[in-house]
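for the writeup, i need someone to sanity check this before i put it in the appendix. the sequnce is what the collaborator sent (i think, or maybe the updated version? ugh). structure was predicted straight from it, no edits. if anything looks off just tell me and ill rerun, i have time this weekend
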Amino acid sequence: EVQLVESGGGMVQPGGSLRLSCAASGFTFSNYDMSWVRQAPGKGPEWISSIDIFGRSTYYADSVKGRFTISRDNAKNTLDLQMNSLNPEDTALYYCARGIKAVVLRPSGRLYWGQGTQVTVSS
């Protein structure tokens, strides 16, 4: 059974930083591109970042480029997201997802999302 468990969310002031982590199990982690997706209240899912199986190629949405950094550790089966310069528009539930952008945003792709971790940016 595929399991993706996110952690590291919380409340932070504007301009602050958080580091999210995702622990993967139930599949061969190193064989899959991975992504982060977020969903703000009342809005649809927003893809924010992907990383290839080797961790060499990374991709970002314009909304987070230059502020967020995705990384992975295939030895530990973990996916991370370092988030800097956070602003209130970053408030959302953040999900770790298996696959690239096109895959994770399909309805069927939702089967391979974690439960999410809440990030709230507020003063």
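The first helix runs from residue 101 to 104. The chain is about 5% helix and 45% strand.
thx in advance!!
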